[in-house]
Amino acid sequence: MRHGKKFNHLGRKTAHRKAMLANMACSLIEHKRINTTVAKAKALKQFVEPLVTKSKEDTTHNRRVVFSKLRQKDAVAELFREVAPKVGDRPGGYTRIIKLGNRLGDNADMAMIELVDYNDTYNPSGTAKKKTRRSRRGGGSKPTAAAAKPEATNEEE
User: Mind telling me which NCBIfam families this protein's record contains (predicted)?
Assistant: First the structure.
């Protein structure tokens, strides 16, 4: 019987599946977004989100728990050093899955999975620069003329 086994095995044995998810999680932490199939993206989301939650509290125990899942020291260091402070106030939902269509070779459903706070398109408050608008009327010369008048009055006195 398969009661209570709501787990996508992704057509792999246990060791292969765990190694694949660990490698994909390390790539996601390093590159902040990766392209994969929809099924793997959903499995990766379930794998990564508890690790990001653990990384919000930087203790030795949490680092060891995350390292036992990820198996790469660099990825654990980057997760605790860079990713965790950026998502510290978020109560969950650290990743976003965007469907991309079908792959040409085998028509598999493809998706992009990314860390939410690192996308400038959906989250412009972080690093986007404010754009200036220029009008045709030439309103840019008025502030410079106003700034020049007080200097002239100070010289006359």
Answer: L17
